[in-house]
Amino acid sequence: MSDAYDNGLWTRRYHPAPDSPVRLVCLPHAGGSASFYFPVSRSLSPAVDVLAVQYPGRQDRRHEPLVPDIPTLSHLVAGELDGWLDRPIAFFGHSMGASVAFEVARILQRERGVEPVRLFVSGRRAPSRTRDERVHQESDEGLISEMRKLAGTAGSILGDEEMLRMILPAIRNDYKAAETYRYEPGPPLSCPVTAFVGADDPKVTVDEARAWGEHTTGDFEFEVFPGGHFYLAAHQAAILDRIRGGLGVGVAAV
């Protein structure tokens, strides 16, 4: 299947940090793109070399076929990272991206013998926790209503009918991938895991997020922030400091 995708467009290295001791790979949420992590890259460089993953079917990859499920997407991402394993690697994923990050970390540990430095997961229930969600089966209007409820898409896009219709197929595809994802039991990760969640997130409860601790034999850190599904927009500075601390590169100066 990988031949259907442009292998030169998977990663964005907005602020190269060739001398950094660690690389952080960031995985977007459903309907999201690599540019969501541009501010993260800018803030963490040069202490951390940030790679943001661009999924097929959006922005400059909009003419490529969408990837229909998380296992396939995770294997494709893992394959693209083969050339980026020259230094310790960590992962950050929000919402659907957390599931992808987890699966990619499992693949690297199981098939490449690479243990990530740390896995950061945000706004997503633990893999062992499931819900019967069917938003991907809703009408276009129902899907748009869900996006407005979560406030994860810029208001300018939600108000631009032409742009909105253009991105809806990718959003619907990603919702289906996230909602139909089912964890295949296997050995837990051995790396530390840090999980973040918004206290009022309608997509994941605090208990569902805390269950990420069951998926690693390493240290587990858990933090609840005020806010909903996209709580991290209001707490960016705090999240970035938690990332720096988790990667051992210090915190930003006050």
TrEMBL record:
Pfam families, alphabetized: Thioesterase
Signal peptide annotation: none
Domain (Thioesterase) ranges: 23-244
Record-level GO BP terms: lipid biosynthetic process
Family per similarity comment: Belongs to the thioesterase family.
Protein name: Thioesterase
Organism of provenance: Phytohabitans suffuscus
Lineage of the species this protein comes from: Bacteria, Bacillati, Actinomycetota, Actinomycetes, Micromonosporales
